[in-house]
Design brief:
The chain is 47% helix and 11% strand. By secondary structure, the chain is mostly helical. The termini are far apart.
Length: 106
């Protein structure tokens, strides 16, 4: 029950910020598309760590099929998930302002 709540919180939040994510069936992690940041999952993971202070694992380390995604775990507290999602929201809001001024996210 607790993990389902955390999973649902994470997946909903990721989809809300535009990191498309399907609901995982039974794992303690979710894979989210980072296409809006970079096609390169290593680059996207670096950007998220550097600019949003959110640690992820590049999907490509799990095989070529993981490229374009990052893995995020939810075997943490709801508070930690909420903080991470807030950081992502702030990052995308700031980057949206940069992009509207002619800049790029990555």
């Amino acid at each position: 029950e607790e993990y389902r709540k955390r999973r649902d919180l994470l997946v909903a939040g990721l989809n809300e910020v535009g990191l498309t994510c399907a609901t995982p069936a039974g794992a303690f992690y979710a894979f989210a598309s980072v296409a809006r940041i970079s096609k390169d999952s290593r680059r996207a993971a670096d950007v998220l760590l550097e600019k949003a202070q959110v640690a992820t694992i590049p999907g490509v380390v799990f095989g070529a099929q993981g490229e374009g995604c990052v893995r995020l775990g939810y075997a943490v507290s709801e508070a930690a998930i909420f903080e991470g999602l807030q950081a992502l929201r702030g990052f995308f809001q700031q980057e949206g302002e940069v992009a509207s001024a002619g800049g790029k996210i990555a």
